[in-house]
Backbone:
């Protein structure tokens, strides 16, 4: 699941998907109504990939919080984010038992529950593991020490130097030296 393309913008409700990059802004599309607009650099924009939650131990990435929601709720939506505060705290305590109750506010829990439900509704939660490319097996024959020394030698300047392009015909009006 790649949450780096899903954004939260301060002062705007909902989540936004990155569509394109403009000269001085990011073009985003609202997940709630599908409208596109530019988000400029002066706005407080946060990628969901960067957000983490305070716990009594190490902080937990938002991605892992959503994964816990998904697994414990068996892929079903969470409670309504507009539920009363005690039921939201109880729900979040069941999902993330070690969250820091002093530093994680009910407003934060409401946002996370609403975001989870929105991402689930738009099928943007994918917790399948991507296959990892494995290194060559250790039992393959290795080269001799002499071959390894050759690969460790630095390249000569001629081989590593960038190739300069030859100049084309001089521009009109410029003097040739």
Residues:
């Amino acid at each position: 699941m790649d949450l780096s393309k899903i954004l939260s913008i301060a002062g705007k409700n909902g989540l936004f998907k990155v569509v394109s990059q403009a000269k001085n802004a990011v073009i985003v599309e609202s997940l709630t109504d599908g409208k596109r607009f530019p988000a400029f650099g002066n706005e407080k924009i946060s990628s969901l990939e960067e957000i983490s939650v305070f716990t009594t131990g190490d902080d937990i990435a938002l991605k892992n919080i959503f994964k816990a929601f998904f697994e414990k709720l068996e892929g079903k939506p969470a409670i309504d984010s507009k539920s009363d505060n005690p039921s939201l705290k109880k729900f979040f305590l069941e999902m993330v038992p070690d969250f820091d109750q002093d530093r994680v506010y009910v407003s934060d829990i409401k946002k996370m529950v609403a975001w989870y439900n929105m991402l689930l509704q738009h099928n943007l939660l994918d917790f399948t593991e991507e296959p990892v490319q494995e290194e060559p097996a250790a039992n393959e024959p290795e080269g001799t020490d002499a071959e390894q020394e050759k690969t460790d030698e630095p390249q000569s300047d001629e081989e590593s130097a960038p190739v300069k392009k030859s100049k084309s015909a001089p521009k009109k009006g410029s003097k040739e030296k």
About this structure: The helical segments are 62-72, 85-95, 106-121, 145-152, 157-160. The domain at 1-50 is CATH 2.30.30.730 (SH3 type barrels.).
